Amino acid sequence: MPTRPRSAVLLACPLVALACASERPGSPTSRPDSAAPAAASVAPASATRDTAPAPRTASRPAGDSTGKVPVLMYHVIGDHDALWTVERGRFRRQLETLHARGYRPITVAQLVDRDFRDVPRGFKPVVFTFDDASPSQFRYLARGDSLVVDPTSAVGIWLDFARTHPDWTPRATFCLLSGAEVGRSFFGNKGIEGQQDAWRFRKVQWLHAQGFELCNHTLWHATLSKYPDAVVQEQVARGQLAIDSAVPGYRVRTFALPLGVWPKRRALAWAGAWTDPKTGRVVRYDHDAVLEVAGGPSVSPYDARFDPRAIKRVVVTGDALDRLLRRLDSSGGAFVR
Prior knowledge:
Elements: E1 68-69, E2 71-74, E3 76-78, E4 85-87, H1 88-100, E5 103-106, H2 108-113, E6 124-131, E7 140-143, E8 146-149, H3 154-164, E9 173-176, H4 200-210, E10 213-216, H5 229-246, E11 254-256, E12 271-275, E13 282-286, E14 289-295, E15 298-299, E16 311-315, H6 320-331
Parallel strand pairs: 2-6, 2-16, 3-4, 5-6, 6-9, 9-10, 11-14, 14-16
Antiparallel strand pairs: 1-15, 7-8, 12-13
Helix pairs in contact: 1-3
């Protein structure tokens, strides 16, 4: 774990998401989140919450719960389009298109809470999620004694867009890995893409300070269905512990399933515990939301079908987002605040 940084100077950089991290440290990169969920089972009572968390805001009037909310899943923002990569120019155009069509960003936690304060009346919420914490999402550039956000990273593009669109708030959910290979350790380490280990905590702290949500994606992206309960809970708890090390006291509310695969005991995705053998410290986690992979846009949180423990997402690749928005707009299917 890196030492806590003293300070940082940050500027804009494009939001970039990299494909999923390796299946285990040192192994070849695995295919990004695409596997179907594994069969569910029940976790021990001490580690399981069997009911969905209650909404934190008042209910919407009856009969006004229709519509879909796009929960977008990004991995890599890069030089060209690929299955798990969105070319950075296309990413910028997607922000422009969403803004022009009346969408405004919120976090997963805000969706669960029915908190639409950042979405004006008559506008539509959209949720951006970025998996794997790669440098393409958030890179620093050293400029003398200062650090600036690389304008070609996802965060840089987002910030640059927000400068000319002040109603585009810093509301997105970053699903973090802290111990993965190929540079996916809090947005880059070991000199990969010029990123230094000492910068990692600064990035996580900065995202939190701006209002972005920090989401747990496990320690190093293990396929949870392959492991016993103890390993599953260690992977999730150590991911949470790493976030807490960067931002002490931060409550992690959202968890993204690596590869979209559930553990054998499905409930361990939203609640569990692990004891650090070195210190004896018990690390508990208790998520309000669990993100699946694919499935299309989510129903609104006012819809009786909405399950915060299994939120569907839209894989953003090629022109899939444009086609989705045209379909929602032509059918009137988008949720409008």
